[in-house]
């Protein structure tokens, strides 16, 4: 868009190629020719921008400065716009790469959390003994409850093993029975 004839001032809108999810970055550059153009650089500025960080804008300005100095003595607007176009495409690629890295990082973090969930507590002598003491206390409590229930139900029968442990005469009773 031509803004004025004296001095010649115009704007050019530069848009990147569509990235992931049809995302684009865009900037509008304003150029003003000086009297001795192309032997001196034109005046340029970024009038508007979309989806660009401040660092990206700074990089574009530096790129314009560099390209303008390299092309002194030649008509350079097309070269400047082309350089900005390439830079915008690079920015879109960087955004895509950054998102992929963030996604991979989240996947790694989720994987680490999953590993931690299944990892558990490392077994040492101290924590094993602590666990065993609690476990034995729980088993003893269960046996006590069972014994109380049996006593209340009137099932005070002893097992064969308990009978042999209580009366050692039973050790030989089967032999005496067989002899008779």
Automatic annotation (TrEMBL):
Which keywords belong to this entry? Acetylation, Phosphoprotein
Against PROSITE patterns, the record matches this protein to:
RWD
**Do you know which SMART domains this protein is assigned to?**
RWD
Where is composition skewed (Basic and acidic residues) in this entry?
Answer: 99-117
Record-annotated RWD domain positions: 1-91
CDD domains from the entry? RWD_RWDD1
Region annotation (Disordered) maps to 99-118
InterPro entries given in the database record: GIR2-like, RWD_dom, UBQ-conjugating_enzyme/RWD, ZC3H15/TMA46_C
Spell out the family assignment given in the record's similarity comment. Answer: Belongs to the RWDD1/GIR2 family.
Q: What exactly does this protein do? A: Protects DRG2 from proteolytic degradation.
PANTHER family in the record, alphabetically?
RWD DOMAIN-CONTAINING PROTEIN
Q: What is this protein called?
A: RWD domain-containing protein 1
Q: Which species is the source of this protein?
A: Ciconia maguari
Q: What is the lineage of its organism?
A: Eukaryota, Metazoa, Chordata, Craniata, Vertebrata
């Amino acid at each position: 868009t031509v803004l004025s004839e004296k001095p010649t001032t115009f704007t050019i809108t530069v848009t990147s190629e569509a990235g992931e999810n049809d995302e684009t970055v865009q900037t509008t550059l304003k150029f003003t020719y000086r009297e001795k153009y192309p032997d001196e650089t034109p005046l340029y500025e970024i009038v508007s921008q979309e989806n660009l960080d401040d660092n990206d804008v700074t990089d574009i300005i530096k790129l314009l400065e560099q390209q303008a100095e390299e092309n002194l003595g030649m008509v350079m607007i097309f070269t400047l716009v082309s350089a900005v176009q390439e830079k915008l495409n690079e920015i879109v690629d960087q955004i895509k790469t950054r998102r992929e890295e963030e996604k991979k990082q989240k996947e790694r973090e989720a994987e680490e959390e999953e590993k931690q969930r299944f990892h558990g507590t490392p077994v040492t002598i101290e924590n094993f003994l602590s666990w065993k003491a609690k476990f034995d206390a729980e088993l003893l409590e269960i046996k006590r409850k069972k014994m109380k229930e049996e006593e209340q139900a009137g099932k005070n029968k002893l097992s064969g093993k308990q009978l042999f442990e209580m009366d050692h005469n039973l050790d030989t009773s089967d032999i005496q029975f067989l002899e008779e």
